[in-house]
Amino acid sequence: MNKVTKQNALRAHSWAGVFLSVLLFLVCLSGTIAVFHFEFERWEQPHIQEMESVTPATIEKAMDTFLTQNPQESHHLFVVFPTSDIPRLVVENDHSAYFADQEGNLIEKESVSFTEMLVDLHLYLNLPHSWGMILVSALGAILCTLIITGIVAHKRISRDAFKFRRGGNGQQSQIDLHNRFGLWASPFHMVIAITGVYFGLAMVVMAVVAQVNYGGDRQAVMDQIFTPDPILAPQVGKPEIGKAFAQMQTLAPEKTPLFLTVHEVGAPEQFIEIYAKAPNRMIYAESYRFDTQGNYVGVAGYEFGEWGKQLAWSVYRLHFGDFAGMTSKWLYFVLGIMMTMLCVSGMEIWLSKKGHPVLATRLWYSVVWGSVSALALTAITDMFYSGSLTVVFWCLMVVNTALTVAMKGLSKSVWLMISGISVLGLLVFYLIVHTTASVTIASLQLNIPMAVYVCWSLYRANTLLKRERMAPSAKAQSGSPAQQTPA
Predict the structure, then answer these.
(1) Which has the closest alpha carbon to 19: 339, 341, 350, 336?
(2) Which of 68, 84, 148, 427 has the most CB atoms around its CB within 10 Å?
(3) Global confidence as pTM
(4) Where are the transmembrane segments (predicted)?
């Protein structure tokens, strides 16, 4: 490619990144953390009894007890089975959810407010879902643009693939780090960006396809992707979910049942559907269908359906790395950190080229490290407050911004230290609130990584603080007449 094309690509890359840096950073950061959303659900209530398997009788008893205590009208009933992701039994309807023990007794109400806020931040930026997802998907499209323009603008990809220069004022090493992260992980970044676009723009694409090929009938397009509900004789009576679940051992002994749904509860079209994870397949699950009496009707056909249907049902696991247990999750976490650091380093490179405008630089650091602090403080608040965590998080972000404007001493090192102290505070309050449950697997699988972050952030903040203190004296010495070499 000629020089003009590379320069144009670099300009597009720079300005797209700068104008959307805050939104891209928040989506990338929340997505990186939300890779462990199942683990966070366990972490929020670590004392709940966990189990590896459950019997049909236990499921029946748990649901019967739940319906007795929650008689309100609901279109759906759900049973979440114990799996390696969440080894707990949950029964719920459209309004509430309760955990059950191994005997089918209800334990306590499910409360995962912080996890829900975190996932909502990633998927919708905490905006109304109807257009929040469209905005986030548009950011996915922008991310695709940044990846492509970044590669096009790179002058010597093959020669510089492993170059990392150190020394000087640090700008060159930051550029090299930005380029290396962007180049090495570009396939992953593109997969995340494209699947992110799919989540929000699928309905828009569906409307266009329906208008062009099906006379505006969106349901016809939906039926091509999602198998229509089975046509059954009018159903009456209590759904026999235990009988349906018992048959899974015969129908699909190699699959792991994830959850059960009773559709259209109390209506003539009521039926039972069990979703089971297929081994060595990327699709989210295959669906097994039963009538109200628990008689097997058939499968939805996602596992061996047309390639387009299989692809659509694989997007979730591909986007969140939920396909190879903790191995794929940790891989996605590391690659997600690289994507998040691309947002950070890209903005810092731009700020460096502009001479580090004081207020803009401080505001950027308040977003980067202040958002980590805000998330930690929001999680602490959730332990004592039952209101909206979305309001809490964004109020904390506004406070961070106001403090940054008002206090000139809030540099990068200070914000990094604040983030570390905030996470440390979270661990302390977590220990106080959950006591002995703080040393269960459900707790430690997140508390240990958070403790590692505390150690790293405080050490890094202390290192940066020393550099900041040394910088003025070094500058004064270099500018002193006694130190200057005569012309």
Answers:
(1) 350
(2) 427
(3) 0.90
(4) 12-36, 131-153, 188-212, 330-351, 363-385, 391-407, 414-433, 439-459
